[in-house]
């Protein structure tokens, strides 16, 4: 209706329009927030539990590479050794994976909240239209994604170059450390690099979140005619409401006139 009349979408979405969009799974989302949350949580999780994980892995590998002749030819013992090694590695892995899972949930629901919609998961033929794909490729969303990609490359490259320059003394020191201290030292430097580089991407997140909120609100804007039609659907047509009020007044007057003969 609005498109055929050539009206512009200048009105903000009504609460009903927002609710209908949420039911269809149309909510503001920031993919950058979700990905950066997982990166930061992964780096923090490895910094917290990385030593525990490395110690468990070291113990398991030492046990596996020191098998006796009897253990090699005994399937039952080999199974027990492999199972115990897996159990030692499982707990620190679970801790890291739980942190990643929580970070993914928070990042996905950070903008737009939690929303489950079966309609959004249904396949749509309109998404397979080549013309629609070309419009998306040359639209504002594509340009914003291009700018974000360039910004991410610049931030990651710049921070990596700065960190390597700042940590050159520690990197040179690795060649003088003895095993296994050099391994743990290298992992510590690497995790610090990953955490700081991931934190620089928060700049992209700070740009992406307001844009996604604005774009979502802009996509749900309505024409004046759509607002009027929705008001009619929810509140009823003004002509009908006026007719109902007139009939109510007439009924009240008839009751009053019927009670006049009985008045004192």
Description:
- There is one protein chain.
- With about 260 residues, the chain is mainly α.
- It is built from 13 helices and no strands.
- The radius of gyration is 32 Å and the shape is elongated.
Outline the secondary-structure elements:
Blueprint: H1 2-5, H2 15-23, H3 31-64, H4 69-72, H5 75-109, H6 118-121, H7 130-137, H8 140-166, H9 168-173, H10 181-200, H11 202-219, H12 224-235, H13 238-259
Number of strands: 0
Largest sheet descriptor:
none
> What is the distance, rounded to the nearest whole angstrom, between the alpha carbons of the first and last residues?
60 Å
User: How much helix is in the residues?
Assistant: over 70%
| Order of SSEs | HHHHHHHHHHHHH
Gyration radius from CA atoms, angstroms: 32 Å
Helix run count:
13
Structural class call reads: mainly alpha
Integer average pLDDT: 79
Which spans of ≥5 residues are poorly predicted at pLDDT below 50? none
Q: Tell the overall outline.
A: elongated
